[in-house]
Amino acid sequence: MIDSKYVLDRLQMRSPDFGLPGDFYGDPDIYALELNLIFYREWLFAAHSSELQAPGSYLTLQIGAYPILLVRAKDGVIRAFINSCRHRGARICPDPRGVASKLVCPYHQWTYALDGSLFAARQMGSAFDRSQFGLRRVHCETVAGYIFICLAPDAPDFTATRRQIEPYLLPHQLAEARVAYESTIVEEGNWKLVWENNRECYHCARNHPELARTFPDTPTVTSGAVEPAVQAHWQRCEAAGLPSRFQLSEDGQVRTARMPLLGSALSYTLNGQPAVRKPLSTAIEPANDFGALLFFHYPSSWNHFLADHAISFRIVPLGPRQTQLTTKWLVHRDAVEGVDYDVSELTRVWLATNAQDRRIVHENQIGMDVPTYQPGPYSQVQESGVRQFVDWYASRMQAGLAAARLTQVA
Ligand code: FES
Ligand SMILES: [Fe+2]
Fold first, then answer.
1. 343 and 218 in one domain?
2. 108 CB less than 6 Å from ligand 1?
3. Which helix (H) or strand (E) element contains residue 362?
């Protein structure tokens, strides 16, 4: 096992103008530290509340060693649980999603109510106390159609995140939207490479011909640098009731900003026209050129909200060199496929962009794995977003490693 003091020292001594050393993108011990200090501690985007419309609908996901179950109970509340039976641990719901009136463990049929309490367990004797064996809860917060979970015993306070994102997201009415299409791919690269690639558009012009038609590759979009044209865009959007100006949470984890698209583009399509005839929200006039609301939440999600649809991206690390990316396209609940939108038109640009980024990340990983790899400097003009992500990562890792050392010493 790698010495965590060694990892801490190297993070403390790194130059913020350069990338991280290569072993941060492949060493299994550093990856294990990241799971413990970041993915098992931070709030993570899990799913959309509209995916769990009816009581009894559930959805599962896997974060590292934790199988997670999200369920909407009869009281309408969405709760998250460890998807592991309190009897002898079997996974209760193996399917990605479903609807059930009770949650029945397939092994010996212990049966849980939708709120996680143990409803029935056969032949356990008269002394058995069912109330002690409800499903283990996971912290769960729903905000404007987004479900976040946190695996930590004591979750970080979610109040500031809610306060920041709710006003930006609410006008898009995502709680009433519907997932029209979902794609999951596995990228052959460390999760941080996926993020770093996302946080710059230095690579966009040559690598993303479809996206480059409507998405500006200026550093403004990734860094939040304030230009007069962007200021004017914010003023116009805010006058129309849409919170828009750039906001970065104090700790650098959460960003919200509404950015203009290229020229007169209204959506991420090849011709810039809306992909969905029925607007996503009654609060946003699609013909008005409001651009895209960009929202990221480290370490698990970035998002684009347009007038006609929204796209969420969720990343889950699968291993030191493997990352799962799930993309969902949301449309108005009543938008009809084949009438209001063509699913291949809706998804064309970002399916292509994801495939292009997947290749980029894989090639990046191969180069990172060279034993003599030395990180080069970031572009001062184009890569402040990458630097901002790595700074956030380093600060979280340093705080976690330093706290673990204090506990050891005590
Ligand atoms: S492990 Fe679930 S009922 Fe036995
Ligand atoms: Fe890209």
1. yes
2. yes
3. helix 343-368
What whole-number distance in Å separates Cα of residue 251 and Cα of residue 161?
A: 11
pLDDT band at 406 (very low <50, low <70, confident <90, very high): confident
Query: Is residue 359 one of the residues assigned to a domain?
Result: yes
User: Shortest CA distance to 80 belongs to which of 90, 72, 69?
Assistant: 69
- pLDDT, position 409: 62
Domain count, the chain: 2
d(CA 283, CA 318): 38
Ligand nearest to the CA of residue 302, numbered in listed order: 2
Ligand with the closest atom to the CA of 198: 2
Range of the domain at 205: 177-368
Provide the mean pLDDT of the chain. 95
Based on the domain organization, do 190 and 230 belong to the same domain? Answer: yes
Rounded distance from Cα 327 to ligand 2 centre (Å) = 14
The kind and range of the H/E element at 266 are: none
Ligand 1 pocket, residue 90 CB under 6 Å: yes
Substitution site in 69, 82, 85 for ligand 1 pocket (most atoms within 8 Å of beta carbon)? 85
Residue among 69, 82, 110, 128 to mutate when testing ligand 1 (max atoms within 8 A of CB): 110
Q: 210 and 134 in one domain?
A: no
Residue 67: which CATH number?
2.102.10.10
Q: Which two tokens stand for residue 39?
A: 């993915």
* CATH, residue 299: 3.90.380.10
Tokens 């698209």 sit at which residue?
Answer: 261
**219 in any annotated domain:** yes
Q: Amino acid identity, residue 99?
A: V
Decide if 343 is inside a domain: yes
pLDDT grade, residue 222 (50/70/90)? low
How many angstroms separate the CA atoms of 359 and 190, rounded? Answer: 13
3-state SS, residue 97: strand
The ligand whose atoms approach the alpha carbon of 352 most closely is 2
pLDDT at 219 over 90: no
Q: Count the Cβ atoms, other than its own, within 10 Å of residue 372.
A: 5
Tokens 């969720």 belong to 314
